[in-house]
Amino acid sequence: MKLSILRGWMTRAWAGDAGLAVVVLVAELGPFIQWPGTGPVLTTVAAAGLMLLRRRHPVVVAVLVGALYVIAYQMPVPDAPVSAMLIALYSVGRHTAVLPSTAVATAAVVVGALVHRLSWEYDVSMTLGLSLPPALPVAAGHVVRLRKELGQRREQQAAENAVRAERRRLARELHDVIAHHVSVVNLYMGVARRTIPADPERARQALLTGEDTARQAMTELRHLLDVLRTDGEPIESQAGAGAPGLPALVEESGDAVLEISGAAVELPTAVDHTVYRLVQEALTNTRKHAAGARSTVRLAYLPGLLEVEVTDDGRPRPGGGGLGLGLAGMAERVSLCGGELRAGPAPEGGFVVHARLPLTEKM
């Protein structure tokens, strides 16, 4: 694919340069049709032919066209191939680095000044006026080249940013899926271990719940990998559950309750996914940092807004100040939805995670 594109570009470039050579030939050769001698014709044909090499060897072409320019200027009919010279100088600025192109422009100005000064009795100001213009096409080529390079750097930066964003999104998904289900499995394995001697049936139910949770984790991981292998919908619209899955999520988390207020409405895809992952992460953190604490999940549907709050009555978190990976992922998710997140110790004890999410898709 890339090879065919490159071949197509080279063919178009070659055709364009051939057309440019014809234009130079017609423009420069016209005045000499009625003149005797072949000198001007030969220099013009040579200068036009060099246009075919201006992209691959711009400096060499500029030097050769400059030599033809000087030779033509010394002929009985002193009319040099000006258009070929200007195109060659533009090609130097367009296809070479700053240092060599600046050197060529300086040489063109100096040689032009000497040629005009020696050939005609111009004063200094007239000589400078005739010799400085060769620097302009080099500068124009510089501008075009720099603009193209800037556009390429912007495209590369955008691609790198997209890759980094995708990695962060994948990290959030993996963290949410693995951390939640592993913590639930750990919870029920602990229940089974403690109740096997006294209550075998309860221990059996705990083991079954742990097994189901592990199976669900594997299902979500496989689903996530399937999403990554295809170019279909984004992760947010496929992986994991949304608000309808909150009752089951809260129930499997142990000592937790769900309270819903307001008239439920259909949530935007990103908000729906964010609500589920936020509650999942908050409950996971409660089991991890405040085992045995009771959690309350509140969902409030307001006009144009959804409020989500997860509180627990556990002891204060150790090392409180910074955000861990899970809370950082929460903050990123909420921010991408245009919402606000607050997480920290509650005044009456325990920990609270509170988010406000607008119910309009981000444009």
Which word captures the global form? rod-shaped
The average pLDDT is 75
The number of helical runs is: 12
Strand content: 5-15%
CA-atom Rg in angstroms: 37 Å
Distance between the termini: 34 Å
Q: Major beta sheet, specifics?
A: 5 strands, mixed
- Helix and strand succession? HHHHHHHHHHEHEEHEE
Briefly note the structural class of the backbone.
alpha+beta
**Which percent bin holds the helix content?**
55-70%
- Please report the total strand number as a whole number: 5
Total number of domains: 3
> Low-confidence spans: pLDDT under 50, at least 5 residues?
319-323
For the biggest β-sheet, the strand order reads 1-2-3-5-4
Domain Histidine kinase/HSP90-like ATPase: 270-361
GO molecular function: ATP binding; phosphorelay sensor kinase activity; protein dimerization activity
Catalytic activity: ATP + protein L-histidine = ADP + protein N-phospho-L-histidine
EC number: 2.7.13.3
What would you say this structure looks like, in words?
The chain is of the alpha+beta class and 363 residues long. It folds into three domains: 1-132, no CATH class; 151-231, Up-down Bundle (Single alpha-helices involved in coiled-coils or other helix-helix interfaces); 243-358, Histidine kinase-like ATPase, C-terminal domain (Heat Shock Protein 90), CATH 3.30.565.10. It is built from twelve helices and five strands. It has helices at residues 2-29, 39-50, 58-73, 82-95, 98-119, 124-131, 135-195, 200-229, 235-238, 246-252, 269-289, 325-336, and strands spanning 256-261, 295-302, 305-312, 340-345, 351-358. It has a five-stranded mixed sheet with strand order 1-2-3-5-4, covered by helices on one side. It is an enzyme of class 2 (transferase). One of its GO terms (molecular function) is protein dimerization activity.
